[in-house]
Amino acid sequence: MEDFQQEAAQPRDRIGSISAPFTMAQALRQRTEGFENKWSMMLSREELVFWEGVFRRKLAKALEQSKFGQALDLISVSVSLYSVVIYVMQTYENGRRPYWYRVSELSYSFFFVLEFFVRWYAANLSVRFFLDWSSIIDLLTAIPFLLEGATKYYLNLSFFRLARILKSLRIMRLYKVVQHTDSEVQRQLFTIIFMVVSSVFTISGLLHLVESEWRMDIDETYDENATPKQFHDALYLTVVTMSTIGYGDFHPTTLWGKVVVMFGIFFTIVMIPQQMNRLVGLLSLKSIYARSSYSSSDAHPHVVVCGSVTYRGIVDFLKEFLHEDHGNADMKVVILSPEHPSDEMLGILRSTKYKANLIYIEGSCLQNKDLKRCDLSKSKACFVLSNQYCADPDEEDSSNIIRALAVKRFARATQGDMQVILQIIRPENKLHFIASMQQSEIDQIVCINEIKMSMLGQNCLCPGFSTLIGNLIQSSDSVPPEDASSEPWQFEYCHGCGYEFYRTPLSTSFEGRTFTEIVDIIYTKFECVTFAVEVLDREGKRKIAVAPLDLIVGSKAKAYVIAPDSEVAAMISTYYDKDAHSRKKEKEPTGDHADDYAKHMEKMRKLRRASVMSGASMHQMITKKDGDKRRGSNLWRKVQVFLKANTADEAGLAEVGQGAHDDESAEGEGRDSAAVRMKQFRLKSNLKKGNVKNKLFEALKVTKSYHMQASRTVKEATIKDASSLVNHIVVCGPRNSTPSGLFHLLAPLRRIHLSKIKPIVLMMPVPPEKKAWEKVSHLKEVYYLEGSPHQYSDLMKANVGSAAVTVILTATYNLSKNEGDLVSLIDADSIFSYQHIKRISDDNVLAVELVSAPNMAFLEPKLEWTSSEFYMSPCFASGTAYTASLLDTLVCQTYYNRDLLTIIRVLVCGGGALDEITTSDNKKRKQGFISQIRAPEETWGFRYIDFFKFLLYNHQMICLGLYRAPLASSNITSYVYTNPTADSEIGPGDRAFVICSREPDETLRGSNTMNHSVTKKRTNVTTYAPNEGPPGARSSIFGSLKNELNTVTEEEEELAADLDAPGFSAGKKRGSVAQLRDEFNSLKEDIALLRSEIKNIVKPPAASAAPPPRAPEKKPAEAGEEEDQE
């Protein structure tokens, strides 16, 4: 900087008069030097260059695509037309021009120069910018302004006269304005018009210039009578000449005039017919999209969307994929479809919102030439969408799988591999894609029916579940004040709509902490809910553990949080606790008594368990000592020993089913493991020979995940009347077919962790199809009732007035051909069914599936909402209505977060192998699941942050949000309040969405019916520091005893379930069954002993700032259960 200033300060006589600008530049640099130094302290040179590039890209996008660019084009065209009018008026001035001519000319010339340099700057000062015809015209029209200050004789220079004439070419800038029209034919028509007008004005100006009176003194051929003296004469001569008429009253008399006329004729003969032929070709072309193609660039990456591209599906897809929260405004979406775009699709292509990002290509993804037109080799990903309401789901899935395989084959032949996100309808069909050996780790398969029906099933257990998950997997726009602030409950609901799932690395400050502590810290510091973490299994593979509260998180872990935006989630990864390292070195205050007591309880438990074992089992336990702490595996290994005397195939079958579920591949199994593997091999051989029925094998494979019974036919499960059933679940099926994915609807209602199950009544006009019924025939208490929800008599037979929940499924139609009014009318049956059931019982909890989201307004016409978004509807806020369009949102979110689909499967679907996970510490942990509990009476009046920590430490639950009762906050209906603010108050009737690994107690679950008669009361709760939990040595005792109690209780429940299973004792030795029952009684004694010790040792702190909440009085029968919750 100093060298430059010294060099600038030296005299520069050799450049003469142009030294003044350098002096001005030097003064300006000195003035701004302090400003630059301030900014240089804040930003480095690389950061300045980066932000300058960002600014240039945004400026270029604004000039080309935004309304600002369109407005600038209109202003430029208007100024250009004004400059042409001024020039024509100047041709009629004989004397000195008025002053306002001069001011006007300088004004628009300055505007042209400014626009030129702004566009050049946005083009990164590239030389290629000058190759554009519009840039050349801008430069030529700006030259007079740049050179007029250099000489005062510019009026006599022919070059400047010519430059003024070229301003008429700026009329061609109107072409940029008409580019925003929807029709290609219209754009071509306007191009021809502007070309003719601009060429006529330009040639007229040239003729008037070369044929003017000032040429009389220098050209001997000048003819005063035949030469056009005024501009309108020159215009007349140009028109009659270009139209090949040529009356001869005016003709060029100078050499240059004749040259101009010849050029005009040549231009008319060559250029105009060429443009007309193009217009005729466009008019004769059936589809312009059949010939279009796309070429990607680094500045504008793109993705390809193919498959069944419907209007509704693509609208939901674009709305989520191009949402501003994802920060991909430059991303292009190329739609590849074999059909010509419908009228609705054309409306999307022409809309100003998506036009800049959307390209439609008519073609097939099975043809390589069409894939090349989409530039698939440079695509970031390919989405294969499905028509959710097609007539034949299997055919739809097969077609999409073939499309996905074709895309994978082409991608591997060109770029190596590419992410394919496949959307299918039936989950069993995804095996076809997996069996092709084309799937890679980056590919995703979204099963519509599996997720959709599972969410409806979970809605029966947790009202509002579909709304909670739906709002978390979609990006929500900011809610206007007029939509959110009219009622307090609306504000709370809209607050929760702003939260989403995010995956973020954990900072080093969280290393070595338990997951419970991490959940507490993150909520306290950021008000974000942490519900899962990535862990490594025994083989070192990455797994996702949901709510592993006792897990000690290691380094470089990644957590899954519910946060308002990505910026808040990123703050978690940079969180720094200055006392974190010091705390790692300090030992936790456990106390000698806690360690001794834990060891004493472990020894007592083993001795008590060993006293009832057989000799072989006791020898096995003593030999292993403490090596195998997975008590669940030990217990079932003893069960296998008791059953060895029974050689029936059913016994072996049960072992195989249990082995598949419990992952009995642990090392050191010895002879028992070898025996099990031999029995598995023998059983598989028998299955191939047909000795065991396949349906029994399929049923027993899932007995450890669901409440099962012996298979029944539809006739055996048919009932004529359900009036004897109370608090049951009624499923109203469509009138035209069996609902697809029926098993996934009923499976959440028969999960094994449910201590009590509710009867299920399937009310449909026709019996379920055989294929669909075989999958649910083993589930307990599932009945079929012939009837229609449109008939009051059938609704009374189903006893919907006494039902706990009523589910209404939508009908199935083929929407691939006609998507007009049918999309809105397809929900008519569901709406009518809803109204009929509401007339019978207004308090009935309903879950309705809808195709068209706007139809939610017909469910409750009295409930109004000013917003046009469906997720703002009161019916959706309460969880009453659900639309499958959320699954198109999930497809987009899967692209940005590849692990989101795994999270959804665990939280929504669950079951089978998703229930448990074995981490690197060789501990088998149950995956957490979402449940709903009522807010305990002692927590009414708590702040939400106190309520959150109360559930975390006292009940080992992670709270996700609240389900507010009606009339709790001026609300008519219930609503979901996702992650409330820390100061929100817990009220009577509130229910909480929690993630837990065990089914909550009956006292916490309560009833789904909201209670409005209770009165609020204010109490205090003792909260603990994020890293402490209960104070002093009580923390270690509390953790050890609670873990031990949970383990023993799990064993007791598993053994009780098997002892009560149908046919378990048939064919077994009486001694074996008796020993098992003794083992069961021993477990119950262990539970009682643990509860007694917890009551005696774990005491509330004596010196608490506020007394602990007083628990409500319990009946004697509930006293033993309540001791467990201390």
Automatic annotation (TrEMBL):
Entry superkingdom: Eukaryota
Transmembrane segments annotated in the record for this chain: 101-122, 189-210, 230-248, 255-272
Protein name as it appears in the record: Calcium-activated potassium channel protein
Keyword Ion transport found: yes
GO cellular component entries: membrane
One Pfam family it belongs to: BK_channel_a
Membrane topology: Multi-pass membrane protein
Compartments where found: Membrane
Cited InterPro entries: Ion_trans_dom, K_chnl_BK_asu, K_chnl_Slo-like, RCK_N, Volt_channel_dom_sf
Organism: Chloropicon primus
UniProtKB keywords: Ion channel, Ion transport, Membrane, Potassium, Potassium channel, Potassium transport, Transmembrane, Transmembrane helix, Transport
Single annotated GO MF: potassium channel activity
Domain RCK N-terminal: 300-446
Disordered: region residues: 1097-1126
